[in-house]
Design brief:
- By secondary structure, the protein is mostly loops.
- It starts with 8 loop residues before the first helix and ends in a 48-residue tail after the last helix.
Length: 62
């Protein structure tokens, strides 16, 4: 692995080329910096009590 290896940074320098092994410097970011998103903690939400089932009364036989 040396000057002839095109997959290493040394080989990229020897052939004066760029690639994944020898990337260009990243351009400076311009604009405002957004704060990283904060993970929300699990909170219990107020849930409604289940609705009561109304039982129909049977008609009394006369």
């Amino acid at each position: 692995m040396g000057k002839g290896d095109s997959k290493t940074a040394k080989g990229k320098r020897a052939t004066s080329s760029y690639g994944n092994a020898r990337p260009h410097a990243a351009p400076k970011a311009t604009g405002s910096y957004a704060a990283p998103a904060v993970k929300k903690t699990a909170t219990k939400t107020a849930t409604k009590a289940p609705a009561k089932k109304v039982v129909a009364k049977k008609a009394a036989a006369k």
